[in-house]
């Protein structure tokens, strides 16, 4: 009823309601303000700010790290430079050494003398001695390659344990140069009258070397267990034999049975120097008490004092001679 609504009590009520509504509105406005101010923290724009500042923080930290590591980087650069310089140097030096070796080979005058290492005693050796023989043969090969008068190097009767050791421990042997490696026995390779077996048990003493001959060294590391075996073999086959003239030139405090590489190197040294005595002094280890015949054993020549010719050799290569001292 409209009239009733416009009556005084009704008007009063309306005013009261309105004022109540106004109050309500003020409260709502305030809380909306509050809401808005709260929302500014979590509004999408602010979230972006937070992500950005995270990025910035990261960037800043990265920059700081970069600054801190500046010294380290400098140091690393220095080291790399130094390394490159060293590499260049060693390359150059290596090249020089190599070309010096090549030069030495080119300047070498090969001898026609044949030196045979007879590997037919394989079954007489234990595997540890086969390994020692292998090393002695490697040494012979290396010495012949750098010799001023390299010999015609033969390895005969190669097979069995020695061949296995070579295949397992030094596959590169198949590329060895200036060497005749044969499975055949030396009597099938060289005619009998050209052969001279070198053996310490022979009564014949070598005075000089004949470049037309083939000298045979027994490929054996036996610690004297097979005494005289090569001498007996040479006699059986009717082959000439001889011992090195050790007693004529040097006195030794050990037996005169030498290791394969020592005999090989003495021949090379004799071809170079033309003197047995010099060859013995150059090759034989000082500990064998080598002194020249006619010298006081307590006062050996200066050269021998200074040169332990064995000092750079493979220690195992000399084990054979050590066992006999
Ligand atoms: C370790 S020896 C072997 C010893 C072995 N019992 C033998 O009957 O020949 C290795 C080889 O070097 C040679 N050899 C060692 N001493 C020698 C010497 N004084 N004169 C000549 N040849 C020698 C021999 O050919 C010998 O077979």
From TrEMBL:
CDD domains, per database record: Trm10euk_A
Give the residue ranges for region: Disordered: 1-109, 294-325
Q: What is its EC number?
A: 2.1.1.221
Q: Which UniProt keywords apply?
A: Methyltransferase, S-adenosyl-L-methionine, Transferase
The UniProt record lists the SAM-dependent MTase TRM10-type domain at: 101-291
Stretches of Polar residues bias are at 40-53
Q: Which residues form the active site?
A: 222 (proton acceptor)
Signal peptide residues are none
Keyword S-adenosyl-L-methionine listed? The answer is yes
Basic residues biased stretches: 73-88
This protein's name: tRNA methyltransferase 10 homolog A
Species, as recorded: Oreochromis niloticus (Nile tilapia)
Show the taxonomic lineage.
Answer: Eukaryota, Metazoa, Chordata, Craniata, Vertebrata
**Which gene carries the instructions for this protein?**
TRMT10A
């Amino acid at each position: 009823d409209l009239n009733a609504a416009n009556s005084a009590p009704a008007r009063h009520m309306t005013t009261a309601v309105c004022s109540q509504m106004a109050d309500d509105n003020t409260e709502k406005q305030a809380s909306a303000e509050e809401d808005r101010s709260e929302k500014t923290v979590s509004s999408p724009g602010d979230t972006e700010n937070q992500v950005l500042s995270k990025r910035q923080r990261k960037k800043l930290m990265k920059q700081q790290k970069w600054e801190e590591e500046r010294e380290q980087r400098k140091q690393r650069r220095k080291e790399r430079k130094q390394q490159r310089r060293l590499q260049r140097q060693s390359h150059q030096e290596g090249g020089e050494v190599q070309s010096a070796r090549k030069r030495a080979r080119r300047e070498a005058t090969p001898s026609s003398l044949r030196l045979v290492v007879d590997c037919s005693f394989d079954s007489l050796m234990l595997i540890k001695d086969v390994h020692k023989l292998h090393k002695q043969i490697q040494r012979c090969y290396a010495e012949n390659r750098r010799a001023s008068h390299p010999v015609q190097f033969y390895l005969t009767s190669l097979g069995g344990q020695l061949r296995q050791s070579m295949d397992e421990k030094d596959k590169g042997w198949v590329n060895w140069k200036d060497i005749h490696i044969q499975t055949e026995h030396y009597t099938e390779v060289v005619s009998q009258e050209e052969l001279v077996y070198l053996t310490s048990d022979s009564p014949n003493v070598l005075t000089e070397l004949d470049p037309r001959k083939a000298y045979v060294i027994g490929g054996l590391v036996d610690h004297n267990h097979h005494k005289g075996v090569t001498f007996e073999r040479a006699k059986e086959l009717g082959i000439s034999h001889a011992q090195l003239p050790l007693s004529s030139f040097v006195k030794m405090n050990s037996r005169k049975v030498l290791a394969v590489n020592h005999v090989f190197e003495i021949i090379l040294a004799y071809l170079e120097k033309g003197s047995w005595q010099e060859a013995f002094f150059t090759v034989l280890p000082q500990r064998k008490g080598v002194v020249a015949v006619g010298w006081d054993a307590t006062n050996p020549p200066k050269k021998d004092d200074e040169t332990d010719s064995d000092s750079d050799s493979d220690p195992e290569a000399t084990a054979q001679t050590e066992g006999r001292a």
